[in-house]
């Protein structure tokens, strides 16, 4: 099973823009029961292999079904567990009756390449049928929803005044950190976290215009910038390291009815790097857990394409969804090494709602790595 995990489950998941985890390799020090519960609750896809009749797997499948996550569940098993297989041995390991009626992908140990290819297809088909919003149980229970809602209301009010409808929202939190940073130190960290590769950086600190200067609040600092050319930014950092950011779409300054796939890759790449800079500036331990979520809104009626210098031959169809949300959990120290995979995980659900568009991993990696090297493509 270790070999199947390495040769099949990991590559099949990653090729679909997912980050595969298993509890014995990704346990973060808490009780295994709570780790398993969190993984099942938060996962977009759950692969459950029934080989060797392991009771814990049957229990966890039942838990997933109890959460109404059967549509997220893909069942697999070695083919000799199938009583229709010529290799089935009566009295040997089998699929028990309570799951035997479900669709199970059986695999042959000698044909793992074929198994991986079929699993990839099933994962991608399943992702395409899931709602564009990820299941938000973890969003509700993990985030400080009241604080986020307060800032979102202010930001959306400001965005509406500009006449823009499209936006990118980013929220971040450090679930395990217990910090209490002064407003002055938050401001200095925000200033040192700017990345100017794209021009107008995420979390821009403007001190030369009084109305745009970050303002101290009881729980942190906040800034709102609204310019004559309809550019809008709002960001807030709380003393415990929580972060809220909302920005109008760059595309609206060029072609208001478009979403540029390369621009979205660039901005999400910048957001991850901005997060690392911010938390390093706040002296957060680099092995700290980081939860980061992205919401793109005002999508309905737009076309997916690229900036004019990289225009696709085909412009993908109008999007029927108005908002798409995705989140990932990682460690601060892992962001740079896993950057391409993290950006892919965030962009995949956004692009899929545009006529199932999927960006080639090599192209995505090129755009991400060029940005890291100071070039926007």
Provide an overview of this structure.
By secondary structure, this protein is an alpha/beta fold. It has helices at residues 2-14, 23-26, 32-42, 55-66, 97-100, 112-129, 137-142, 145-162, 183-192, 261-281, 339-352, 361-372; strands at 46-49, 73-78, 104-107, 167-173, 215-217, 220-226, 232-238, 243-248, 258-260, 289-297, 303-305, 323-331. The chain has 12 helices and 12 strands. The strands form 3 sheets. A 7-stranded antiparallel beta sheet has the order 5-6-7-8-4-10-12, with helices on both faces. Helix 10 crosses helix 12. The protein is globular. The relative contact order is 0.11.
Write the topology of this structure.
Layout: H1 2-14, H2 23-26, H3 32-42, E1 46-49, H4 55-66, E2 73-78, H5 97-100, E3 104-107, H6 112-129, H7 137-142, H8 145-162, E4 167-173, H9 183-192, E5 215-217, E6 220-226, E7 232-238, E8 243-248, E9 258-260, H10 261-281, E10 289-297, E11 303-305, E12 323-331, H11 339-352, H12 361-372
Parallel strand pairs: 1-2, 2-3, 9-11
Antiparallel strand pairs: 4-8, 4-10, 5-6, 6-7, 7-8, 10-12
Helix pairs in contact: 1-6, 9-10, 10-11, 10-12, 11-12
Summarize the structure.
The chain has 377 residues and is α/β, with parallel strands linked by helices. The chain has helices at residues 2-14, 23-26, 32-42, 55-66, 97-100, 112-129, 137-142, 145-162, 183-192, 261-281, 339-352, 361-372; strands spanning 46-49, 73-78, 104-107, 167-173, 215-217, 220-226, 232-238, 243-248, 258-260, 289-297, 303-305, 323-331.
